[in-house]
Amino acid sequence: MPISLYNGLTRRLEPFVPLDPQRVTMYVCGPTVYNFVHIGNARPPVVFDVLARLLRRHYPQVVYARNITDVDDKINAAAQQQGVPITTITDRFAQAFRDDMAGLGVAPPDIEPHATAHIGEIVAMVEQLLASGHAYAAEGHVLFDVGSYPAYGELSGRDTEELIAGARVDVAPYKKSPGDFVLWKPSTPELPGWDSPWGRGRPGWHIECSAMSAAHLGETIDIHAGGIDLQFPHHENEIAQSTCAHGGKAFARYWLHNGMLTFGGRKMSKSLGNVLLVHELLQQHPAEALRLMLLRGHYRQPLDWSDDAIQQAVNTLDGWYRVLRDLDGIDLPEGALPAPPAVEAALCDDINTPQALAELSQLADAARQAGTAAAKAELLGGGALLGLLQQAPEAWFQRGGETIDAVHIEGLLQQRRDARAARDFARADAIRAELDALGIVIEDSAQGTRWSVK
Ligand SMILES: [Zn+2]
Predict the structure, then answer these.
(1) What spacing in Å lies between the alpha carbon of 378 and ligand 1's midpoint?
(2) Kind and range of the H or E element at 270?
(3) How far apart are CA 47 and CA 367, in angstroms?
(4) Residue 317: CA atoms inside 13 Å, Cβ hemisphere, count?
(5) pTM confidence score
(6) 28 alpha carbon to ligand 1 midpoint, in Å?
(7) Is the per-residue pLDDT at 96 higher than 90?
(8) How far is the CA of 207 from the centre of ligand 1 (A)?
C-alpha cells in the first residue's frame, strides 16, 4: 500500500518515495532539556512514532533520529540559578522526557544525538559555511549570511523582508543584515563553552540539527519533521545551512509539521498559565487515553485539549478493552498480528489517525459480534499500528492498580462469593459496599465476577 505525505516544502500531498528504499531516514527535532515537557511537546513524538511504525512495516530499515538539545541559553540560565553544571539539568530532564515518552507508548528513536556530543561536527560545518562564503565572523560570533542563499524563505513561503519582521530578530551591531542568524557565539568564562577557531564559545541552536542530521543520516535525508512552530525560523535556517554546506544538495525531501495544541481554544503557554505537564497528566489519567487523545485529530490541524475529551478517550478504550476482555479465552491465530487494510490505508493517507481510529472502532464492533480469533487478531493488529490496545484488558481496567492491593480485593470477592453461596445477602452487600469505598466496581457475569477501578 503506497504511503502519501503532505510535503510542507511543495505544499502538496505527494507519494512517499524514499531516496534509498533499503534505508529510510527520518529526523524529528527533539526537546531542549531544562524542564518537564508539556503535552503539546508530546504531539510530534507521538504522531511521528505512528509514522515510524508505518514506515518500519513498509521498508527493511528505518533510521529515525530525534535529538536532545543539551546546550542552550535557557539551560544555562537554569544551571546558573541553581548553581549546578548544565549536565545536572540536562541529564535529569532528558531522562524525564524519555520516561514521559515511554509512558505515552512512544518507541525510542534509533538515534538520540546530543548537541554537546557533536561540537566537532558543528565546528566543521561552520568552517565549511565560512569557506564557501555563506557565513562571516564578527566579534566572536559566526553568522549565516541569509543574503547568500537566494532560496531562503522557500519552506515558510514568505519573502525575506516578511521573515525578518515576523521573527522580530535582534538587530545586533555585528550583523550585516537583521535576518542573519547565529551559527556560533562567544561564551563568557562562567558559561559553558568549547574552543573553536573563533575563540571559546558555543553553537547556535539551528546548526546542531543540521550537523547531527548529516552525521547520522547523511547529507540528504527523506523526512524532517517537527511542530509547525519550528517551521520558521528553525527549519528555514536548517535548510539554508545544510544546503549551503553541502554544495547545494537538498537537505530533506519531505517536510512534515504538526499543528499546535490548544487548551480551551487558547494556545498552551506558560504566560497564560494553562500548561499541562506530561508527567502530571500521566499521574492523573490512564496513559493510553492520553496517547489516544493526541491521535484523535489530524496531525496537521490544531488539537484542543480538554478534560471532557480525556474522559471520552477513556470511555472509548473501556469499550475496546471490554471486547478484548470478553474474548480473553480465545487464542490468537499463529504468526504475526494482521495489519487490517482499512487502518493501514488511513495511515498511508498522510497519517490520517482520526480515520484509522474510526476503522478501529469498526473492528471492535466486528470482533464483538463475531467473537472469533480472526476478528480479535484484526482488532489487536489495528491497535498495534497506532500503538494502542497492547496491554492486557485486566491491566487496563485495573489502572492505577499498583496502588490497589489486588490480593486484598480478590480476597474480598471470595468472601462475597462465599456469603452469596451461603445466602447471606446482607454480608454480600456489605462487602460490595466495602469494595465500592475502595473505588472498585464489580460486575457479575456468566463468566464470574470481574472488577475494575472506578
Ligand atoms: Zn531541529
Answers:
(1) 37
(2) none
(3) 26
(4) 29
(5) 0.88
(6) 7
(7) yes
(8) 8
